[in-house]
Amino acid sequence: MDLRRTFTTGLKKGIATTWILLKITLPVYFIVRLLEATPVLDWLSTLFEPVMGLFGLPGEASLVLVIGNTLGLYAAVGAMGAMAFSGTQVTVLALMLSFSHSLPVETALAHRLGLSVPFVVSLRLGLAAFSGLAAHLTLAAA
Amino acid sequence: MELVSDALAGGLNQAWLMARVVIPLMIVLQFCRDLNLLGGLARLMSPLTRLFGMSGKSAFPLLIGLIFGLSFGAGVIFDSAREDGLSRRDLLLLVIFLVGCHAVVEDTLVFVVVGADGRLLLAARIGVALAVTWLISLFLKPSTTPALSKCLTEDGECP
Q1: Residue of B nearest to A30 (CA)
Q2: Is the confidence metric ipTM above 0.90 for this complex?
Q3: When comparing pLDDT for B46 and B14, which is higher?
Q4: Of A9, A113, B87, B89, whose CB is crowded by the most CB atoms within 10 A?
């Protein structure tokens, strides 16, 4: 058993994976930072304020949810890093995104394994909404 | 131009935060693979598969999906379904659990990077996936249908 080899293989994979992930997060991070200099985020915020308020989140959190559900968690983290959220808000967003993310890719996989598309999508979005609501209520009370 | 330099610094910072999580994780996972720790860990999953009334053969793909994620897990699930003959019920419950909860190490750490409460995330995700799968398992009768060896091989359409 060559432990040194295992270590270097792991290291190489880690660097390769980090590089792949950065190619996703960094562009999203920069785009969101640039969007902040335009009124686009403000429009989004105002539009989604009422819905996001249910989860104790500001309106612009809607952008993070959309990015996470379409592009994936790393892109969502890139967007979150570019915005200012409180610790509780980060946890609520993370919880919602944990249940529901990368819908195009992962729904295709689940479908391939025998689940129906509407079932998977509604289960995941339902869990996200439920957990966001529950987390907001309990964390706000604490 | 303050915006650009500001964004650049923030981007580099984020790159560092991410590398700090991903590189050690990949090294640990590589050790798990090379030292064959996964077989032993899979046995720890058997109380779970028993709770859902699934066959013990589901434990390994369950563990792989839980740790490595849905895309990698899908490969192992296909493989197990074909080689070990998972029943349709086993497969359904397996995928339902994994849809709610997969790649738990990576997905949790990614959010810890931006300041989320990792323990809460992990506990909530596993707890909710368990509850949902258990509920559905009550309604799915133990399957009498034969193994799925055929329907997963060609175009993925199951009867």
Answers
A1: B7
A2: no
A3: B46
A4: A113
